[in-house]
Amino acid sequence: MEQCYCIAIIELKLSKEEFLDLTPYEFSILYEHYARVKKDDYSILRNTVYNAGANLMRGEGDKEIPLFDEIDNVEDEETRIEELKKEREALFKSYSG
Predict the structure, then answer these.
(1) Is residue 48 within 8 Å of 55, Cβ to Cβ?
(2) What is the chain's Cα-based Rg?
(3) pTM score, two decimals?
(4) Do residues 19 and 5 make contact, with C-beta atoms less than 8 angstroms apart?
(5) What angle do CA 17, 20, 24 make, to 5 degrees?
(6) Average model confidence (pLDDT) for the chain?
(7) What's the pLDDT at 70?
(8) Is the separation of the CB atoms in 34 and 12 below 8 Å?
(9) How many CB atoms lie within 10 A of CB 55?
């Protein structure tokens, strides 16, 4: 319990009252989401450092390796946004019941 309280206060920035109002299930969902976000952040950082190293070590005259893929046209981006909306709707439906 003490470890959960420390995580809530330090990592999740919850007040004592907010922590005490949470059920164990709610706390686990919050913490899982927090852990997923941190993992994504660290993955992006790792990939950025790797990309910078790869670009530093490339040969003279070699093309620079882009960090992120470029989206060439707006239609692709709009399609991607629609797909993300559908995925998130399905996710929220699965959490709500």
Answers:
(1) no
(2) 20
(3) 0.56
(4) yes
(5) 145
(6) 83
(7) 65
(8) yes
(9) 14
How far apart are the C-alpha atoms of 60 and 69, rounded to whole Å? 22
Q: pLDDT tens, 46-84?
A: 988 998 888 888 888 888 888 776 655 556 777 878 888
* DSSP characters over 54-77: HHHHSPTTPPPPPSS-----HHHH
User: What is the rounded CA–CA span in Å between residue 54 and residue 66?
Assistant: 10
Q: What distance in Å separates the CA atoms of residue 44 and residue 57, rounded to the nearest whole number?
A: 20
Measured CA angle at 38 (ends 31, 83), to 5 deg: 90
The pLDDT of residue 42 is above 90: yes
The SS3 assignment for 87 reads helix
The model's confidence at residue 32, banded by pLDDT at 50, 70 and 90, is very high
Q: What is the pLDDT of residue 66?
A: 81
b (16+ CB within 10 A) / e for 2-27: eeeeebbeeebebeeeebeebeeeeb
